[in-house]
Specification:
binds flavin-adenine dinucleotide, 7-stranded mixed sheet, about 400 residues, single chain, 3 domains, 18 strands
Length: about 400
Amino acid sequence: MDDVVVVGAGPAGNNAALELAKRGFGVRVIDSRVNIGDKLCTGIIGAECARRFPLDSELVYHEARSAKLVTPEKATLHFSVATPQAKIVDRVSYVASFAHRAEAAGATYHLGQRVLEISPESSGVSIRTDQNHYRARSVIIASGFGTPLTNNVGLGKVADYVTAVQAEAAIGDEDQVEIHLGQSVAPGFFSWIVPTRPGRALVGLLTRRKAQNHLDDFLRRLESEGRIRCVTKEPSSWGIPLRPLKHTLRDRILVVGDAAGQVKPTSGGGIYYSLLSSEIAADVLAGALSAGDLSSRYLSNYQRRWKELLGHELETGYSARRMYEYLSDSQISSLARQADRNGLHQELINSPELSFDWHSQMIDKVMRHPILGGMLGLVNPFLATLAHRPNRLLDLAGTASGSSDPLVSTRG
Ligand SMILES: Cc1cc2nc3c(=O)[nH]c(=O)nc-3n(C[C@H](O)[C@H](O)[C@H](O)COP(=O)(O)OP(=O)(O)OC[C@H]3O[C@@H](n4cnc5c(N)ncnc54)[C@H](O)[C@@H]3O)c2cc1C
């Protein structure tokens, strides 16, 4: 019997496997994919993530020092920072680098094998795949967005999500990240052009409905404007959770990463939070395995610790996200005009609250800003109040989840 079976070799699963294998536990990782890490993603990580979970410099395509924001009325705001806040990386190789280190530390990998069922038993956990059957003392579910396995073990599924769609296109020698806003581009969310290797960019967007149609329109427009030469990889889509699972553990089982909904609801970025959560999961599980106590009581330290670290960010980010979704194009444009006036946007960018990975302080700063916060308060006093009291919004969302309440019903 293995000490741990990890389901999923994304950032969350590989890092958990690495941490546990380094401590001498018997770890088996199972992934249905053959090419580790080859999941739809743009591959932007914050500078803090790169410091904490370093990568070889040849895996970095660009460092993002500046960005362009295009408003619904097609005005452009330029942002630049003295110190790069983020890196655009070769995501497949970055994720695989964790797996290589986990293997070197003793973890065993089974690729091209899908886990179909996880059955907790009194003395262990039984794991049935499409090819085999394993038993383990414990399981980490790190099988990403939309996994049926959390439901399978009685932990439910994430309550809200958004669809992401992305293609690759041939571009000139631009190296600036672009974000486009507006109902005609990506209703409620945003679209992006992210230059990667020379002459290529990832072009994608997030939105709740008809994401593929919106991307087709966006790509056509960029092509007609001569911004992209052609599409080099056809669009594909995947989901991004916007809310965490209520319970991320039970006896012998922990859930991490996208499967647990540990993603920034503002941007949809989840690599760093997956890595941080998997570190906590591995630490708690290592203690439980050593103590011979794999009860949910012992393992609840995992939920307590990841919530201490990320809970406030996820709550505040979700409140702000919902508020943004209810802004009209003219309201967004008007906010952008105000921010542009007197270089307000640059003032925000240069403020100590700016962080690629931690957004709650910047949200708070904007909400308290006499002009921007005041405008948001006028535009939607109810939601503006909730954004100051994120727990209140989540309480409401919790009670009304799945209901027809237009404020909080899940529309994914
Ligand atoms: C279009 C798009 C762009 C994104 N861009 C960024 C970005 O720039 N920066 C960022 O931080 N985040 C980004 N994200 C989010 C990021 O990709 C995820 O948050 C991150 O990959 C989560 O890691 P994970 O390990 O939890 O899950 P995943 O990376 O999804 O890994 C889960 C693994 O589990 C495997 N699996 C699933 N089911 C089974 C099964 N039954 N049996 C065996 N194996 C299974 C899958 O094959 C997969 O390898 C983006 C997401 C999308 C969709």
